[in-house]
Fold histidine kinase.
Amino acid sequence: MQEQDSSSVQGRVDADGRLVSADPALADLHARAGGEPGGPLAVPQLAQLARLVRRLSIPVSRAVLAADGEDDLDLWVRAKPDGASVELAIAGWTHRSAAFAPMPAPHHDREADFLRAEADWTWETDAALRLSSLSAAGMAALSGEASGPVLGDALTRLFVLEDGREAGPPLLEALANQAGFEDQYVVLRGSTRRFRLAGVPILGSGGALTGFRGGGFAIADEPTLTPAAPKPANDGPSAFAQRLETALRGPIHRIVATAEQIREQEDGPVRADYNGYAGDIANAGRHLLGLIEDLVDLEAVERADLEVEQETLDMADLARRAGGLLSVRADDKDMRIEQPDIAEKLEAIGDFKRSLQVLVNLVGNAVRYGPESSTVRVSIEARGAHVAAIVADQGRGIAPENHELVFAKFERLGTREPGSGLGLYISRRLARAMGGDILIESGADKGARFVFTLPAK
C-alpha cells in the first residue's frame, strides 16, 4: 500500500546543520524524528546530504529513504548550496510499509568520487579499517619522522583519532552505523601532524559493510615540520611523478564523478544509450586512475638510485595480510583464499612495504583471473638460502613459452580483465631489488603458480 504526495516541499539548513525554515510537511517529519524547531535537522539522511552539499558547494539530487514512524518514506531530494546554507526541495513523499520497502539505490560510489577529487590524497580500507590502498601522495604525506604507513595497517594504528564535536571519533561512529563520515581529525602517530579524513562506506552485494573509501586533507594552519634527517631509502616517486599524479588525478576524478551523476540520472531521466555511455566513461576514468598509480610506481622502480629497506620480516604474516586485503574481492566471485596458519612463521630479509605490495599484486591477479567458486592458495616454504611465498590459482594456467613474457613491460596475455600490463613487471623489479625474484611454476591448463622469493633470515 502506497500513498504519494506530489507537491514539492521546501526547507533550509544553516551552516550549523539547523533546520531554520521548513514547509509544514518537512517540519512535521523533523518533529516526528525527534527534532526541535530551529534545532539540528533530525532526519539523518537529509542531514547527511546537507553536509555533503555544503562541503562540496555543488547541487546534488538523489533518492532518499527515510523512516517515518512505522513506515518508510521515499523522497526525491534536491539540495543546493546558498552561501553557508543549503536549500532543500523535496518531492515524491511516497509512504510505504517498511516491511515491503525496497533497499535504496547505492550512491556511495559517486560520493567517493567527489571526495577523492577534492582530497589531497586518497585511501581505502577493508571492514576492519586495515589500509588496502593509499595513493603516492598519501604515502608521501604520512612519511617522515614516523615510520610511515604500510598496506594492512589499521587506521587506528596509524593515527590517534580525535573525538567529534558531539560524540566519540566520527570514524568509529560511521563504522558502527555503516555510514559515511566527514570530519575525522587525526594525529599521525609518532608526530604532531594533524589531518582531516572523510570517507564513505563500501557495501557488498548483500548490503554488508566491506570497507571505507575516502580522502585525506592537510590542515592549512598546521606548521610544516621538517624531518630531523632525510630518509635513507630512496624508494619513492620523484617530484616529477608526484606532480604528474597530482595534475591528472583531480581532473580524472571529476570526470568520473560527473559521469556517475549522469548515469544515476540524478537530474532527471536520460536516454538509455546516454546512460550506457556515461557508465563507460566512468569505468574508463577509473582505469586511467589505476594506470596513473602504476606509472608512478614504474617511475620509482626504474630509477637508478632505487633503494629498499633490509629488515627482518615474516613471510607467513605477509601472506596472511595479502590474503586478508583481497578477501572482499574474492567473496564477490565466491572464491576462497587459503592462507598460512596463524602459527606458521618463516623469516626473511626485505622491505616490508614493498614485499606486501608484491604479494598483494600476485594474489590480486589470482583472484582477478581465477574462475568463480575456485580457490587461491597462498603458502610458504624454505628454499635453501631463500624463503618463498607461493600463490597458486585454478585458472587457465600460463604456457611455458610465456613464462618470461608475462613479466615484460605493458605485456598482457589476455584482455578479459582491465589492466595496465605493469603489475608483474614492477613486482619482479622490486623482488630483485630486495635480493629475491618472482618465477612461474606452471604449465598451460593447470593453473598458475607464482613463486616470490626473498633471502632467508
Q: What stands out?
A: Residues 311-455 form a domain with the Heat Shock Protein 90 fold (CATH 3.30.565.10). The longest strand covers residues 85-97.
